[in-house]
## 1
Amino acid sequence: MALVLLAIGKAYLVLGAGVAVVFLAFGIDRVEPNARGAWAFRPLILPGLILIWPLVLWRWWALARGWDEQRRHLPPRRAQERLGLALAVAIPLVLAIAFSVKQGEPQGQPAIRLSTPGEVSR
Amino acid sequence: MSVKYIPVQWSKNKYVYDAVLLVCVAAYILIFLRLGAPAARTTLPVDEQILRMRAFGTCAFLMLTVILCIGPLARLDRRLLPLLYNRRHFGVLTSIVALNHAMYVFGWYFAFSPTPSFEALLTANTSYDQVLGFPFEVFGVFTLIVLGILAATSHDFWLSFLSAPVWKALHLMIYPAYAAIVAHVGLGYLQDARNPTFAVIACGGALAVAALHLAARRKAEPAAAGDWRPVALWSAIPNKRAVVVRLDGDERAAVFRNGATLSAVSNACAHQNGPLGEGRIVYGCITCPWHGFQYRPEDGCSPPPFTEKLPTYRLRLDGEMVMIDARANPPGTLVEPLPLPEGT
């Protein structure tokens, strides 16, 4: 299972590197006017292109069709509020679970005899 | 603002912000390394490598805690808004500190076996069916991946390319990442530590994040129905300021008063969807309180050579009540400012 996960991760990153090269060579100047003639910042975006390449492909496709100008002004406020609330509930819950399973310190505890004197454990 | 991308847009405030950050991180690491070993009182002796990984790990946790406190704090008290301006640099530095922690972990716990490090990380402990002894490392791996994605997409290019709502939705991953890092610390370091100092600091910080997010939750204002919605009495809108009205769904409009006229634009800045209605009019332009992006009130366009545009809205007066047409105009549409009654 671990090997499969690692293989999937490697394949994902290799594909991401391919998408990054193609996007930087052919896509960025078409869909992002502010990037035209600006080169120094491009190495900075390379890791992001590799890490979120499916999103890059989707946005490349959407921008090439001039698709979402109006949607740029609709931030996900409700999602943020819900996630903030979920986080506020999750934090005390996680801490409570963590402290409920925390074990005491063995040092300083009196020894407990587990078998009668003379008994030999097998 | 836009026009051409450069690697980093520095300003005096950013230099100061980053310098303070670096000094604080360096001071924390040095103090932890100096005081951490004698104070640890763990069940097993702490060697130098473990001490370093704990220094960077606890530092990253505390940095992430502060980052998550900044948003609600700035909403509760506007004087703290400057903390928000450069939060992306804070996030990138946090991911670097967290990566250092991970490298020390790999270099110590997973470096001395024939099994490759990544494989060893995933196979060393598979007790996923129990809380005590749960492989807490997976929470850390998840958070590290999220921090890496957020740091890698922190440049302004990503805001423009993804659009602010998509970028924001992507960066909302910080919430599950923080819950995961609380679990990572709670089921990891806090299980072993006998000195309560870090436990108190970590729990206090995490609970502060929870409390601040509850405190800053916006009260859900009901949205009115119909195309024309009431906003406020025009006399209630301070000069050079705005009132924000909720429209449908996530949409909000900011109605600004500029002397004797009113204009309405989207409340979401085109840069990072900052709350424009909490800004003010400076030199005739609506100015975002987050990063200072500016727009003309009448058409929602940034002054040349900048190219950002906002949707605009039509306004009318119904007696003293300002009414807004909830149907947004396309970004950059000119709407003649609504004149207020004479003598205002």
## 2
Amino acid sequence: MRRESEPILEVENLEIAFPSAEGALHAVNGVSLDLRPGETLGIVGESGCGKSTIGRAILGLVPSPGKIVGGSIRFQGNDITRFSGEQLRAYRGNRVAMIFQDPMSTLNPVMTIGTQIREALSIHNVAKGAAATARATKLLDLVGIPDARSRLDAYPHQLSGGMRQRAGIAMAISCEPDVLIADEPTTALDVTVQAQVIDLLGSLRDEFGMAIVLISHDLGVVSSIADRVMVLYSGYVVESGTTGKVLGRRLHPYTEGLIGSRTEINGPRPDRLHAIPGAAPALMGPAAECPFRPRCPVAENVCTLSNPPLVAVENMHEAACHVRAPQPVQPVEIRKRRGAQ
Amino acid sequence: MSTSASEAITPHKRSANGGPLLEVVDLKVHFGTGAGLQGRKGGKVKAVDGLSFHIDQGETLGLVGESGCGKSTTGRAVLQLIEPTAGSVRFAGKELIGLKRRELRRVRRHMQMVFQDPYSSLDSRMTVADTLAEPLSIHGLARGREASTRIADLLDSVGLPQSSTRRYPHEFSGGQRQRIAIARALAVSPQLIVCDEPISALDVSVQAQVLNLFEDLQKDFGLTYLFIAHDLAAVRHLSQRIAVMYLGRIVETGDSEEVVARPLHPYSQALISAVPRLESSSSKRERIILQGDLPSPANPPSGCHFSTRCPYAQARCRVEEPTLTTVENGRQVSCHFWQEIQSGAMLPSQNVVGSTDSEPSGVAL
């Protein structure tokens, strides 16, 4: 935990909506988070919960026709939602970089790995010419690609899935970003390679003091390197806190469901997995009730009356649940709190 | 659950000697890589290189390994979707290799497959009703109103609403599509279903729903599964027995709880160690992190195939190929030194074992 330093990234009350034929689809609803140098935040939730949209928004890449309709994203105190195109280009890929689930679709198939890394270095004026080549070689070496010098000349299709993801990481860290957004970086990989990539992210973070936002549908992947975890449901933060506290108390029934859905390699084998029934709804407007209520095993009458606010249940741990974390006073005040401070 | 389905499932015939439902002996699938450029001779990829296993009626065998180890090829070769190069595949006592097309089609009714990607395994221009009616009509099982009743039963079995019949695959989520694919496999009342990574494209929460569905269906219809996956935790959950594959060969097999609790082969140990667990990042655990990727099956390492990545590899391992040996009740392992590794007499080399807080590679920018 590195709570003493100033946050490098602060997202406050972020709201993102996508226009659709039936009205605006609310993908992200009042999400706040902060990140300090060297810290890792895990964002967890099912497909469509808004986790990737948040990751992209931090890069100023909200997919069209989506729009940030409220809140702010401040990087070193500057609101990037107000950045000009030029400011965004200097920021994106340089100060904040991203790695994606499928490196095959993010790497250019007709450019060698080396050319792509050198391009990133030259665009951001980090290095040019022979210096760029030397640095690109070092980067490939750093991410554990054997025989780095000759792999510079390889095209993406000539590398295995794991090696491609390493090349994607090399490109993302080429300008030594302060924040690295990793959106399901290991989902397409074998477990053995997944372990390698997660380890690599951890050691790069420790070496360069980067902050990482790790986005995944699997709490198990996130828990091994994240200091803090944020559980997202229908664009709302439903639980957030240090990894130990969230995993230890599993306060929100949705967090509990995500954990119960996992098959474990250790411990006793359950007869049946505690799957969460149904699927997450698409929210067309602000939730009038708890969005998880239709799938919730502990829902009560109160859950239909309003959407529960995020309430601090202990230091560095908050949850939004009428049943498990009833709000004491003035929920409006608490709602504005930033993620797990 | 529909009675018609459970009646239809009655096995047409068990093996005459009461043996396993599926018995695979020394299965080999070799692919020619074709003639190379400039007339160079093409090589051979030994995707499956001498595999033997059996599955009893009502049992689930989990086949695990990394991408490229030949596990999917094995599944396809069992169903004769790929022609095996050598070996024997006996289903209910009947040899499948060399069967004529028509005979094969008759047997296939009893053996179905569920694929990894429900986005590409369903025909996007067919409604759910058409998708489910097709196997019924191909095998002459039901038509017209009878087919409609059967389709309604199938949708019930896999937990889809009756209103699904007139809808197209794109209207469903990934989990729902996988349910459609499972219903299609069930339509012909098979005995054996080969599941090829059926949950790896799904969210964790949906994976649990589908795993539970597989279990329910097995109970209700007495199904036998060959469950192919790279995720050992999911395989352990569903399977009674596990076979671990590496580069076309089985390196360890046995009761799933025993293999997971006490893996004998260093590769099984590494696979188990790599499975993400729910643990706070502050609690560090010693993990075996395999270096590099699976070697190319076109040019496998000499001796033990795993020797290039094995933390215990000795000179002997690079020359002499170990054989799959029965070591205890139903447990087989293919490693020269499994006893020494198990007893602790042999220690892993340092550069292969790392903890979760392992130091970076030490190259500074």
